[in-house]
Specification:
Elements: H1 3-68, H2 70-151
Helix pairs in contact: 1-2
Length: about 180
């Protein structure tokens, strides 16, 4: 397997990993939203059941108070109804808050996944560019060595390559800079 194939496989693996991370982030986001919606539903249902129980108790109390005085019973029933409405309103508000927090968390997870995906795409592009640069340098070196071999004759000095050369050990600077 040559270097180009290895670089291609590395780039492909990076792209696949980025896609998998994005899909996982979306799945986690949907799961958190669904979980928050279920929790909100349970809380509303529990509040409604509690309100129904409170209402039933209020009706029983109202029946007992009718014997003592209709006016006092009606005032008490109104008070209990108001409390039940407050409990229900409070439960709904709490359910909205939980759902809002879940959506925010899901949005943050999705943003993190998107940022990671972008970083992986940038890395992929950088790896591809550096691989192309490396292949170009190898081709130039190969062409130079082949030309020198073709020019060499027994006992004759080898002519130098007319193309400009880099000093030994000098390489191109990779284009990928982490944290962009």
């Amino acid at each position: 397997m040559d270097a180009a194939q290895q670089v291609g496989q590395i780039v492909q693996a990076a792209e696949e990993a980025a896609e998998q991370l994005r899909a996982e982030a979306e799945t986690r986001s949907r799961e958190r939203i669904a979980e928050a919606q279920r929790a909100a539903g349970y809380r509303v249902q529990a509040a409604e059941e509690e309100a129904a129980e409170i209402l039933a108790a209020a009706k029983a109390e109202a029946s007992r108070l009718v014997a003592e005085g209709r006016k006092a019973a009606e005032a008490e029933a109104a008070k209990v109804h108001a409390e039940a409405a407050e409990v229900r309103a409070s439960a709904r508000e709490e359910a909205r808050a939980v759902t809002s927090e879940a959506r925010l968390a899901a949005r943050e997870v999705l943003e993190d996944g998107s940022e990671l995906s972008t970083d992986l795409r940038d890395l992929s592009s950088s790896l591809r560019a550096n691989a192309e640069r490396l292949l170009r340098d190898i081709r130039l070196a190969h062409a130079s060595m082949t030309a020198r071999l073709d020019q060499a004759t027994p006992g004759a000095p080898v002519e130098s390559d007319p193309r400009p050369r880099r000093p030994a050990g000098e390489l191109d600077v990779p284009e990928f800079v982490p944290g962009r």
